[in-house]
Design brief:
Elements: E1 31-35, E2 38-41, H1 42-55, H2 57-64, H3 71-91, H4 98-107, H5 111-114, H6 124-142, E3 146-155, H7 158-170, H8 174-181, E4 192-199, E5 219-223, E6 231-241, H9 251-254, H10 257-271, E7 277-279, E8 285-287, E9 292-294, E10 303-305
Helix pairs in contact: 1-2, 1-3, 3-6, 3-10, 4-6, 6-10
């Protein structure tokens, strides 16, 4: 599953023309989005989009062809993710060594090379690298000690997964029936369980998923594998801190840095779960599953829902 922490190729991506006209929301007409009461200005997103169009030939070519959508949403998602990372760093008292930020950018050939074929430019790339280091630190602090307890089941059809997740959100008592009715795997095993304890060290394929990014009481649905051949629907019941298993002390050093950052993003999302994210309708809606902005709710890569008896996050 891709996240905005990964660099993207502009080939095949429809490029957004700069937004025009009157905003219908959020409340501040000059905002592209509002995160926890903090505004991300329309001008910020527009200016960054222009820079991407100027520096990426593929983006310019698509604009010339009159294609819409894409880059401005990625830029806005980057701005939203930055707000989330910034909030998480403040909550966890994380400070980043600026020398490491500078060195990381230089290792990629300098700011211009590091920002190539991405929504970043030579100025924002340093901020992005700072956010990645924050995510890495959050991941290291939780990798060996975070455990969630879930009820879950798997299905093959993404539409069915999202619909059943919505049903559980509306009525959590349905979860037990769905767990019992879940189809068996090709090996004859039941693809479901109640009160299942899950740790990322024992379930590395789930490292990037929303299991780690939500509060207890939240229902999530997402692809259970990269091929999206199976979807998991889970009700997160508990979130616990446990003792690390012997031999996991250096685990963070042995994991792909991109996966570590993806896991850290989920921790940041959990820490910022009480910050509402409002996206100006001209850009679309926020998709927490992929940490990006999509055109409408139907395009979200997964499902995140909180039962009415719980506090919305």
């Amino acid at each position: 599953m891709s996240t905005v922490l990964k660099r993207f190729s502009l080939v095949g991506v429809a490029v957004a023309l700069l937004a025009t006209g009157c905003a219908t929301g959020p409340a501040k007409a000059s905002s592209a989005a509002i995160v926890g009461g903090q505004s991300i200005g329309l001008s910020t997103v527009q200016d960054r989009t222009v820079k991407v169009l100027k520096k990426e030939p593929a983006a310019q070519q698509m604009q010339d062809q009159g294609k819409l959508d894409g880059v401005s949403r990625l830029v806005l998602a980057d701005e939203i993710t930055h707000k989330i990372a910034e909030y998480a760093a403040q909550r966890e008292n994380i400070t980043v060594d600026e020398t490491k930020v500078y060195d990381a950018v230089q290792e990629k050939g300098g700011p211009e090379a590091a920002a190539k074929q991405s929504e970043q430019d030579e100025t924002t790339i340093y901020r992005r690298q700072r956010d990645v280091l924050v995510m890495g630190e959050l991941a290291k602090r939780n990798l060996s000690t975070l455990e969630v307890v879930i009820d879950f089941f798997q299905v093959k059809d993404p539409k069915e997964a999202k619909e059943k997740a919505a049903e559980v959100t509306a009525d959590p008592s349905k979860m037990s029936r769905f767990v019992q009715e879940a189809p068996r795997t090709t090996g004859g095993q039941q693809a479901s369980a109640s009160n299942q304890k899950v740790r990322v060290t024992e379930n590395p394929s789930l490292v990037h998923t929303m299991l780690w990014g939500v509060k207890p009481g939240t229902v999530v649905a997402f692809p259970a594998d990269e091929q999206q051949s199976s979807w998991m629907v889970a009700l997160v019941k508990e979130r616990n801190t446990v003792s690390p298993v012997p031999g996991e002390d250096d685990l963070a050093e042995r994991i792909d840095p991109r996966l570590l950052a993806a896991f850290g993003l989920r921790i940041a999302q959990f820490l910022a779960a009480d910050l509402p994210v409002e996206v100006n309708p001209r850009y679309g809606v926020w998709d927490p599953t992929d940490a990006t902005v999509v055109g409408n709710a139907g395009e979200r890569a997964g499902f995140v829902g909180v039962p009415a008896t719980k506090n919305k996050s």
